[in-house]
Design goal:
Blueprint lengths: L1 E6 L3 H10 L5 E7 L7 H4 L3 E2 L9 H25 L5 E9 L2 H16 L5 E3 L1 H7 L10 E11 L1 H14 L3 E4 L3 E9 L2 E9 L2 E4 L2 E4 L5 H7 L6 E12 L12 E4 L2 E7 L2 E5 L15 H14 L7 E13 L6 E4 L6 E5 L5 H17 L1
Parallel strand pairs: 1-2, 1-11, 2-7, 4-13, 11-18
Antiparallel strand pairs: 3-6, 4-6, 5-6, 8-9, 9-10, 12-15, 12-16, 13-14, 14-15, 17-18
Bound molecules: flavin-adenine dinucleotide.
Length: 363
């Protein structure tokens, strides 16, 4: 059996662990220095904006499409295997604030239709009928994606880990990867042993899915992948009752702000996008979260009656000088695979990433 060690129990490492755990030729170990689903994944809203994304060619679209095709089956598999229920919201409504945005939406809908996906263009009266809680004064219409959805990132990650363990994977928390021992020379190094604060692991493959922690690790391996922390803040809001007037209540997104119905009158609203300074430092700015709240109320006025019951922030791993995400062999190594730097779309792209990792391992 080949020994595969995956560093990082966020959504990316957990999805890779689950997909690889189905291969009986592989022995999987997943480690994290903390508990799983705490870092970026613990702060994420879990929106899967795949079909509705403006990406339409090359790797960007392929990864999205692979993820969106895999997700329904993946969720069904792990739900059936574990018995866990993973909270989800089906359907995503993107509000258009200008004619240009609406024209773009129409082009996208035609393209997605030709690719076998479904996007609906809604005029303002249709929007008013389906979602009377939306303020339409500044809108030119909307685009509704019935196949995009939202999934609870922590619940999903924990269920993927549970399913991986049931398939034989070993998952260890509180284990910090520090360095590797490798054979070979400058032309090709082979990582044999992963060193951690809890001992050593033999590796045939080492998969680095450590989010922002991938930078110090790759620096230790002499090929640093620079990742910058882009902070995001979000909030949970409680209303007396749900906004919906019928069963139909999709995620609503407008002005890059997302309103996600959780049930029982509760909503997640987010998120800010805050870049670090030149030293790589970033801290949550209250006025930016206030701005998110104001914009959300502008297109969804009943939210103003709600109470903000929780706020949080997290840091997204954004690769510097190359496109997100980074899924490739670490330069100089023939068995160290990077699966990291997913920036704003780690939850969306996790299944496509796992598929790409499997392909790299088969070469
Ligand atoms: C506010 C906010 C909202 C977001 N909303 C969305 C969204 O709607 N949709 C979406 O797709 N994405 C969203 N994202 C982005 C998403 O959260 C990330 O892209 C994703 O979580 C990255 O997952 P990951 O598994 O690579 O990293 P992480 O979740 O950061 O996991 C990496 C793990 O590696 C561990 N680790 C690091 N170094 C080591 C080491 N040396 N040894 C052992 N373990 C180590 C860490 O402890 C951590 O658990 C959002 C992010 C934020 C902050």
């Amino acid at each position: 059996m080949k020994q595969v060690v995956i560093i990082g129990g966020g959504i990316v490492g957990a999805t890779i662990a689950y997909e690889l755990s189905q291969n009986s030729q592989l022995s999987i170990t997943l480690i994290d220095r903390e508990a799983p689903a705490q870092a970026s994944t613990g702060a994420a809203l879990g929106l899967l904006m795949g079909i509705i994304s403006q990406k339409n060619k090359g790797r960007d679209w392929q990864l999205r499409e692979a993820s969106m095709r895999r997700y329904p089956q993946l969720l069904a598999e792990i739900t059936q295997q574990t018995g866990d229920q993973i909270p989800q919201v089906q359907g995503l409504l993107h509000l258009c604030f200008s004619q240009q945005e609406k024209d773009q939406a129409e082009k996208l809908a035609a393209l997605r239709c030709s690719q076998g996906w479904n996007l609906e263009i809604w005029e303002v009266p249709q929007l008013q009928t389906h979602c009377p809680y939306i303020e339409t004064a500044n809108l030119t219409g909307a685009i509704y994606s019935p196949q995009d959805f939202q999934v609870h990132p922590k619940a999903l990650t924990n269920t993927l880990i549970k399913a991986s363990q049931q398939n034989g994977a070993s998952c260890r928390w509180g284990v910090e990867a520090t360095n590797v021992s490798a054979n070979g020379n400058r032309n090709g190094r082979h990582c044999r042993i992963l060193h951690t604060n809890q001992g050593d692991w033999e590796t045939d493959y080492l998969i680095v899915a450590a989010g922002l922690g991938s930078f110090p690790l790759t620096r230790q391996l002499q090929h640093p992948l620079t990742l910058s922390p882009v902070l995001g803040q979000a909030m949970r809001v409680r209303l007396d009752k749900n906004l919906k007037t019928s069963e139909f209540q999709p995620v609503v997104t407008g002005d890059d702000i997302h309103v996600i119905p959780l049930g029982n009158g509760e909503y997640w609203v987010g998120a800010t996008v805050e870049f670090p300074d030149e030293q790589g430092n970033v801290k949550a700015e209250k006025h930016l979260l206030d701005g998110v709240w104001e914009k959300a109320i502008a297109f969804c006025p009943p939210l103003a009656q709600g109470e903000i019951v929780e706020t949080w922030s997290g840091k997204r791993p954004r690769p510097e000088g190359q496109a997100a995400p980074v899924i490739e062999y670490l330069e100089g190594y023939d068995n160290v695979i990077l699966a990291t730097g997913h920036y704003r779309n780690g939850v969306l792209l996790a299944p496509g990433t796992a598929e790409a990792v499997k392909q790299l391992m088969s070469h």
